[in-house]
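Researcher: Next sequence.
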Amino acid sequence: MRLTPTSVAVAALLCALLGTSTGCRMPMGGWNPGLFLYPIPVSPFFQDRLEDKFWEHERYERVPIMGPTTSGGVPRALDPPTPDEVMRALEKARPVEGGVPLLFEVQRNNVRIVPELIADYVDPPRIYPLIGPAQLHHAHYKCTIYYTETNRSGWPVPHTNVDDTVEVIYIDHNHLHMMVDADDTATSNY
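Model: Next structure:
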């Protein structure tokens, strides 16, 4: 392959251009990102949905591992469901339809929650993967929710309906109790 004076000149010109175009600047006026230069608005709806998903996973979708049960004692359930947990379960079971102000709105007011423990029992011991020997403790709650539901419609004829409503939600709380060896030491390290 023979090098001609023209190809040598073009190669020298390219080397000179590459040497002067370091950093973010291009030889012909700089880098232009086009539409990506301007911020794109994102609805807060998506951020709230991600935060709610993380909150539910962190608070309500995990099974805690407790220490071993004491000998001769009856294991008690953990705390009853929180009002936040009950209202999230109610929202999943019977969602409030997203309203349009002055056209249609639904509100839940004067909320009163009554949790009742309906079952509390412990399964026999078994071996759980990545945990070891443990017992699963079940606690079933019946949560009765009393509230006033207000439906406002603004079109075609403005009117308001107020109902005293009662809903029942069943919530299960499960957690594990570690088993104790023969020498009364727990099988897992905390």
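Model: Strands lie at 65-66, 104-122, 126-128, 132-153, 159-178. DSSP finds three helices and five strands in the chain.
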